[in-house]
Design brief:
The complex is a heterodimer of chains A (162) and B (220). Chain A is an alpha+beta fold and 162 residues long. Chain A has 2 domains: 72 residues, no CATH class; 66 residues, no CATH class. Chain B is 93% helix and 0% strand. Classes of the chains: A alpha+beta (162), B mainly alpha (220). At the A-B interface, helix 4, strand 3, strand 4, helix 5 and helix 6 of A face helix 3, helix 4 and helix 5 of B.
Amino acid sequence: MKLKLPAAVASSQDLTALISEVHVYAKWVARESIRQRVSGKGTGAKVELSPEAGELIRTWGGGKPPTQASIDSLLKQLETHRKTAPSITITLPAVPSGELKATLVNWMRQNLSSDILVNFRLNRNILGGMVVAYGSHIFDWSFRRKLLDSPIQFHEVLTRVR
Amino acid sequence: MNVIQIFLLINAFLIGVGVTLALQYWRAHRHGQAKPSRAAQNVPLPAAVREKLVKQAEENFQGIVNRSALQLQRDLGTTGNQLSKLLEKFGSEVLDDEMKLFRANVADIRASTQVALSGAQDEITKQQTAILASLASRQVDLEAKLSTRQAELEDQLETNLAEEKERLSAQLHGTLNDAVLAFLLETLGHEVDLGAQADYLLATLDANKERLVKGVGSEA
């Protein structure tokens, strides 16, 4: 089954956090199964998962209750994904909202690669726009770069303003 | 032999004649006193007569001497007058001659001086013409060099001005950019509204989609 990360899991840090959650969940599932086999009933207390982790586990099981094997395969897939997935970095002048993050991540996964990880960084000096870095490529579409690349036009604009 | 020399010779002759006559009178008087005539020696005269004769002879002699002296004086006066006139004439002639000679010399000198002056004037004129021509040529050369140098300096000045203008403009642009960037950083750096930029960010991504895909493909 192909892994499809939710838009909220954008960066490698998000993926690492997600893997930790799934690990915790996997341990809980293992303990619960042992208790089921020994005492015939579980503890009843469930591990609290983030919506993204819960959705991923449900999706990964195909709607069935998660088993130890399915969770182990999910963990393995997530680890593989963390190691092999392409990663892109977007630098913004302010902290992006969740909605904006999701929008940008969806655009990246639709147009570049479905399994791409998107890291967000903050740099107030770029004033506006964004800087996209992928491997050795850096695409600077910031306002600061525009100002620096067109000083004459900027000066003409200032002259017209005066 | 000119007139003056002839006049001087005549005067010398007259003076010689006068001196000869005076000497003859003087000798005659001496012989009359020193050597009495043989008749007198032979015939003794009374003292009174002799005294009278001596006195008469002295008076005659005195008269002759006086007349001769007077004559000589008169001749000397005449001669002196003539000499004065001749000297005056001679002086005037000499003066005239000298003046003529002087004038002639002066005229010669003037003529030679005039010739020399005219020659010098011609030479000066030639030299002046040559100098003027040289000056004109040199002035033309200098003007040509000056115009060339002026054109070079103007070109250099324009180049320098353009370079300086470009440098100042670049410096001004840099300063303005820095100032505006600093201003924007100070005023907008902490107030960036990414929500308002969301559409712009998506539009930027769409506009550069091909470049992004190509970059990701080359990295993969």
